[in-house]
Amino acid sequence: MSYLSDEITSQPDVWSTAIARAASLSAAGTLPAPGERVAVIGCGSSLNVARAYARLREAAGHGPTDGYPASELVSTRDYDHMVFISRTGTTTEVLAALREIPSNIRTTSLTATESAPLARETSNLVLLDFADERSVVSSRFITAAIVLLRAHLGEDLSALPAAAAAELTRPLPAELADRAEYTFLGCGWASFVADEAALKLREASRTWAESYPAMEYRHGPISVSDPDTVVWGIGEIPASLAADAARTGATVINRGGDPLLGLIGAQRLAVTLADRKAINPDQPRSLSRSVILA
After folding, report:
1. Which one of 23, 116, 130, 161 is CB 3.0 to 4.6 Å from 12, fit for a cystine?
2. 101, 107 Cβ separation under 8 angstroms
3. CB hemisphere CA count around 254 (13 angstroms)
4. What is the residue-wise DSSP string for 190-243?
5. What phi and psi, each to the nearest 5 degrees, are found at residue 125?
6. Are 105 and 79 in contact (CB under 8 A)?
7. Burial level of 69, CB count in 10 A (0-12/13-18/19+)?
């Protein structure tokens, strides 16, 4: 068993804790308030959280919200509040972006490490220490952050931990591990969860995987699908789109449901593929828990 496997399995309990913590954050005013103009910054998996939260917050009517890679922050826009996401709180690009913004902008960090530079240097801290991980490949920190942010936006997620526990017992279709290519599709904020699903396969198992906003699949990516491809809808995707994918001969998964449940399936598949290749999913080639640049 890998650390990653254990951390994937722990997600129902971790999500319950995230939902409870969101309630206390709402009372404290730690995260952006409705009406604030917000930027959300991250790298890698944390960028996927940032972009998902930005889409969710704006769709909920809480105000303009942009998600950026830390290295690509647009300096010509004015923000009231900026949120920085990093599991370790030591990512070089995230810290550099934080240190370059005007001092009058409110800042909040989401991190698992209270003593990290990111936690010390922002105005507010959302501590996800309960979701910290030993694997280089992140799983529960990412999903816990999304759950917490969704709950803070007012979603009723009380049934989601039990649904996650049920998802963990659902057998993965045996044929999935025999395919060579994997395409993840999602609509709205789920497109960024699809990005995260593809990233897990690349990181943990060195598997060819890509992701797209669902309706973009017909605009080019469908041309590489064939019987050696899995096309996996994360959350709800149009039935007609799934039918088009099936006509290529690809194995199509279109279960619907909460996008994070689909991500659990992709995380589990990544571990299965790593095991088949005799790869340690906790130690991806050329990666570390935090990217710290000289």
Report:
1. 161
2. yes
3. 18
4. HHHHHHHHHHHHHHHH--EEEEEEGGGTTTTGGGG--TTEEEEESS---HHHHH
5. -125, 130
6. yes
7. middle
Strand order through the sheet with 251-253: 208-213, 181-186, 229-233, 251-253
Task: Give this prediction's pTM.
Answer: 0.96
pLDDT digits (tens, 9 = 90+) for 132-152: 999 999 999 999 999 999 999
- How far is CA 199 from each of CA 111, 211, 214, rounded to the nearest angstrom? 20, 9, 17
C-beta neighbour count of 144 within 10 angstroms: 27
Contact 4, 204 (CB under 8 A): yes
Torsional sign, CA 75, 76, 82, 87: negative
Q: What angle do CA 251, 255, 261 make, to 5 degrees?
A: 110
Q: Which domains does the chain have, with CATH numbers?
A: 3-152 (3.40.50.10490), 170-276 (3.40.50.10490)
Please say whether the beta carbons of 113 and 89 come within 8 A.
Answer: yes
Task: With cut-offs at 50, 70 and 90, classify the pLDDT of residue 294.
Answer: low
Among 52-61, 74-83, 129-138, 216-225, which stretch is predicted with the lowest mean pLDDT?
74-83
Q: Are 188 and 160 in contact (CB under 8 A)?
A: no
The band of 127, judged by pLDDT with boundaries at 50, 70 and 90, is very high
The H or E element spanning position 256 is none
Q: How far apart are CA 262 and CA 159, in angstroms?
A: 16
